Give the backbone structure.
Amino acid sequence: MRHWINQFLRRRETKASATAPLFVTDRMRHPLWTPRQYDTLAEEGYQKNIVVYRCVSLIARGVASVPWRLYKEETRLETHPLLSLLQKPNPQQGLPRFMEALTAYLLLAGNVYVEAVIPEDEPLELYLLRPDRMKIIPGTAAVPEAFEYTLQGRAVRIPVDPFNGHSRVLHIKTFNPLHDWYGMSPIEAAAHAIDQHNAVASHNLSLLQNGGRPSGAIQFRPTKEGNILSEQQRQNLRQELLSAVEGANNSGRILIVEGDFEWKEMGLSPKDLDFIEGKYLSAREIAQVYGVPPMLIGVPGDATFSNYKEARYHLWEDTILPHLEMIKGELNQWLTPLFGTGLVLDYDTDSIPALAPKREVLWGKIEKASFLTLNEKRALVGYQPIPAGDRLG
């Protein structure tokens, strides 16, 4: 037994990455919090910005709408414990809500954590953990030593197998060029555009609350005797002006003052600042970060796609399907092996209405392929063979 263990350890030393120890010495195995404040990103980018909210909702709900299939050696399984788990991951969520929340966390934080409750051999429930409550404890190799989840001052540590990286927690992350352990939130790339979009919205709201009046000054002309306003008179006049014209309820109210006064506008008008076009420009930039055609979020003047149907197709082809591929790959590496060998999870693209034009083109090409048998054509579109379907013609 000792000889076998020594051989195993030597194989591990040979297989281990030469740069893996640097991951540890760089951070000294201290717990690492998410580099950017998730609550700030979620509040400023998602709760207060309609463009980010719309982009995240479109992608997350698209991912949630796709049904999943389970195969074993290319045979589709209609019933299986893994399928039952996916249909109801936990008592509070079904599959659509679970997938929507999973995708939304990934799009907002760049990280998503799934915990599997495993009392024996197979998981019974799956739970999503908030990214801002999770921190990674670096291990002695290029895998974490543990995940630590903190809530209301109480922390729970979930270990990670140092040899194969398996854990009850699945960490899905986006690519981050400047961090070894955490993914990068798309909101970070769109931060300037989001700030600009929010600033324009805040300015317009303040302008409306001020009765639609830009900032300015009242210029007082001295009399022939050289009299000017005293400091107390200035304060009184300023207070009267604020109480008379400030606020949306005072919009349009006529103000009567005594003396030789002149209103001098000091602020630039929205037309001068071109706020509307600037707001649309920042909205397009946010949509580009998330891979959503601007047409789908209501931004006018975008002629990239000829119609709404084409824009929806590109949203699925360029954005939603790659997210589904990422989720599928992570689940097949982490979850399906717990239910046995030879199992593969996949999603059903035939159920996606937006991809119907692509399917029609493919089916048309297959139908015209005279060098394929009927069963070969059926196999290409995902159908089972039929008797007497192996002849050409």
